[in-house]
From TrEMBL:
The keyword Cell membrane is assigned to this record: no
Keywords assigned: Signal
Species this chain originates from: Pseudidiomarina sediminum
Pfam families named among the record's database cross-references: Metallophos
Residues making up the signal peptide according to the UniProt record: 1-15
Full protein name: Calcineurin-like phosphoesterase domain-containing protein
GO molecular function: hydrolase activity
Residue intervals of the Calcineurin-like phosphoesterase domain: 29-136
Recorded superkingdom: Bacteria
InterPro entries, alphabetized: Calcineurin-like_PHP, Metallo-depent_PP-like
Amino acid sequence: MKPLLLSLLALTAAACTVKPAPEPAGFEFLVVGDMPYNASDVRMLQQTEQWSHTHEIPFVLHLGDYKSGGKPCTANYDNDFAQLLEDFAPLPVFYTPGDNEWTDCDRFEDPNTGAKYSELARLTEVRRRFAVLPEGSASLRAEQQQSLPENMAWQHRNVHFMTVHVSGTNNGRDHVAVDDLELALQAANAREQGAVHWIRQQFSTARANQAEAVVLAMQADMTVHAGFHEQTPCTAVARGNQACDAYVVIRREIQQQAQRFKKPVLVIHGDTPEFELVRDFAGNEASNLWRLNAAGDAGVNAFGVAYGTQDVTEVRYTGDLMQPFEMKGVFTK
């Protein structure tokens, strides 16, 4: 009887054992870009804050350009953006700089001095205020690049994320109106070299951790030069436009790292009005590489024609190798 009793007890215990539910493969996060430029954008972001607190959103990405490029770079815009980050708390917001808040600032005069802004001084100020790990990011194992603290990385559900400082205006190499060109060149080269090193390092970490996917976020649309000057990397900075592609080195690095990683890779950017999720970043040379042009760059042009999609992007990682990423507008659907 004893062996039979023991067997019955074992079967009963096994039947009563509750296995933990498997962690769902998919999750969503939010992407904000090219806003707020106006009162309508502000209202949308306020609604987004409320929406995010009632949904299971682990973090928010802000792709830069937190002010219009047509307005002076006063401290009011910096203060408003700081308040925006605070309002989203405790939800962490990872920010990567856009051209509107630093490299394009030398279009305007500083009302406090009457002189045009220094774009390098503006970048220093942006870094001082916003190149810090966001509140609530410790649980995501967030880290910063030592040399370029605006470049950050973190993990969620075995997906590896990183921000890379890549801005418009030919990555800060064109239209340097005020700053010494040699100093501007040194800064541009340091950003490019730092970006390449950061991308390489983070893909290495992703491989070591056996991450399922990698997501990179930046402000600039690096495909705008493709097919035009893409074989001509920039080696200088200038007061005006240059016939070169400041993104070619970074674009090639992402392509090569995606090929080596072999699993899904997503590049997210803003700065241009197309709201799309496509696989045209590297074509057949890296078929596992997707590109998301996020919503946000929207308005009415000089001819009165509306462009872009005014919205916040909800991105879903599905865990499916064939279609690993999905996107939709939070408000426009």
